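Please fill in the sequence for the structure shown.

STRUCTURE ENCODING:
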């Protein structure tokens, strides 16, 4: 029996009142955490060959003193994942080489994806569920598609950038841009020779 590849969920959260533009991000899978906090891959994203990656975007804010929500809704206007390949080989007498443009591949088993992958904004839809804290209001949008991790080993810098439209309870609309950019690894993450 062939073992199914693992499934990873990227959850990226913003607070509508935050001053900065950094997303709070977390990669998780059922078998273990996708964000190692120890060892050589600490602080990076650790992908597994053949893995499928799903994306949820959450927006939240503290409830007002009267208990009402701080905003009515939000929607994703634009979402991009950019991967910058690291060196795979360098040194005296060696040809300088880089990993492929992206750790992701076409779902039909075809070649590597480009370094820039646009997640179709119209494929984000309200998601039921998601953890909330007491006194905190949160809405989640789930992308109804997925990305496929390829079979190649490597290291990439991964950037995730979204533009969201936030609708206030008064109907006022605000647009914000948020992002994060850790390093990603597939497989052993071998250091270049």
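FILLED IN BY: designer on duty
SEQUENCE:
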């Amino acid at each position: 029996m062939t073992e199914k590849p693992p499934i990873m969920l990227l959850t990226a959260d913003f607070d509508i009142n935050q001053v900065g533009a950094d997303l709070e991000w977390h990669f998780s899978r059922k078998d273990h955490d996708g964000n190692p906090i120890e060892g050589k891959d600490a602080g990076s994203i650790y992908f597994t060959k053949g893995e499928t990656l799903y994306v949820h975007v959450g927006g939240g804010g503290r409830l007002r003193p009267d208990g009402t929500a701080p905003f009515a809704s939000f929607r994703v206007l634009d979402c991009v994942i950019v991967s910058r390949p690291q060196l795979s080989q360098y040194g005296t007498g060696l040809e300088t080489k880089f990993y492929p443009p992206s750790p992701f591949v076409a779902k039909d088993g075809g070649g590597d994806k480009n370094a820039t992958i646009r997640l179709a904004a119209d494929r984000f839809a309200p998601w039921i569920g998601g953890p909330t804290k007491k006194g905190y209001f949160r809405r989640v949008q789930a992308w109804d598609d997925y990305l496929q991790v390829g079979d190649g080993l490597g290291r990439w810098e991964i950037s995730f950038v979204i533009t969201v439209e936030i609708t206030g309870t008064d109907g006022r609309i605000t647009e914000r841009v948020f992002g994060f950019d850790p390093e990603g690894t597939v497989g052993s993450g071998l250091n270049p020779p």
